[in-house]
Amino acid sequence: MDNVRNIVILTGAGISAESGIDTFRSDGGLWEQHRIEDVATPEGFARDPDLVLRFYDMRREAVLTKQPNPAHDALAKLDREWSARPNHNLLIVTQNVDDLHERAGAAHVHHMHGELRSALCTACMKRSPWDAPMSDRPACPQCGVNALRPDVVWFGEMPYHMDRIYGFLRRADLFVSIGTSGAVYPAAGFVRDARELGAQTLELNLERSEGSAWFGESRLGPASKLVPQWVDEVLRVS
Ligand code: APR
To answer: Fewest CB within a 10 Å sphere: which of 9, 17, 33, 78?
Structure first.
């Protein structure tokens, strides 16, 4: 940890699993309950918008009842203490659309796949904070048109904040991946990018991910245990 100043942390559904939020590809996960083509593509939204709006209404309502777990809390602590040090930077890049990182107190978070508690208007293209259902086709708070969609990145769409994320990856001394299967690009390619740019790489996951071979170190177990242990280690030795 001696020469580590810039840390990039990628999180996936596994970090929110112990908060009671379904992951996507586990047994009984979201993609076993719903067809990706129907609920997570622009084509699916065009074909059956009611089905898609209900799907995200269900997920948004569920997330509002969940709480951050010790893994979210530990990352918020690391964000606070690490970022307070001179010339030290940390960025949490999450694939998750829940807001548990922020509710735990993390400040430096990029949602590359969007956010459930945000509405995107397809008329004025503006975003608005949103906690209510969308399937009754409410008006956009900014332009008044009934053209809202979930502010979530669907398959085939461009993830958000990619320039800033690659900018951080280029400067990273340490890249850590938590609770992701490594099944979806571009996030699944970050470890390789970071490694080829000379960063140390660490995976914290319940089981080996598809990109495990790229990590310098893999620790297997539940995030609520592994993440607080790792954060204590980082803050102790650096
Ligand atoms: N602690 C740590 N890891 C866990 C835990 C846990 N308690 N529970 C599950 N995991 C791990 C699983 O072993 C798996 O590797 O989290 C990973 C979850 O994988 P996915 O369900 O594929 O979720 P994710 O990697 O976030 O999916 C990526 O795919 O469906 C799209 O846009 C969606 O952002 C999502 C992207």
So the answer is: 33
Atom of ligand 1 nearest to the CA of 207: 13
Q: Which residues, listed in sequence order, are joined to residue 111 by a DSSP beta bridge?
A: 94
Cα gap 93→83, rounded to integer Å: 15
Q: Which atom, in ligand 1's list, is nearest to the CA of 222?
A: 1
Mention every residue, 6+ apart, whose C-beta is less than 8 A from residue 52.
Answer: 38, 39, 44, 45, 149, 150
Q: Kindly report the pTM of this predicted structure.
A: 0.97
Q: Is 147 in the pocket of ligand 1 (CB under 6 A)?
A: no
- In the three-class reduction of DSSP (H, G, I as helix; E, B as strand; rest coil), residue 193 is classed as helix
CB 150 near ligand 1, within 6 Å: no
Smallest CA separation from ligand 1 atom 34, residue: 95
Q: Residue 3 corresponds to which tokens in the numbers above?
A: 């020469």
Q: Is the CB of 19 under 6 A from ligand 1?
A: no
Residue 155: Cβ within 10 Å count: 12
- Quick check: CB of 95 below 6 Å from ligand 1? yes
| Residue 11 to residue 227: CA distance in whole angstroms | 11
Tell me the pLDDT tens digit for each residue of 78-134: 999 999 999 999 999 999 999 999 999 999 999 999 999 999 999 999 999 999 999
Cα 112 to Cα 151: distance, rounded to the nearest angstrom: 11
Reply yes or no on whether 34 is catalytic.
no
What Cα–Cα distance (Å) separates residue 112 from each residue in 33, 176, 208? 23, 16, 23
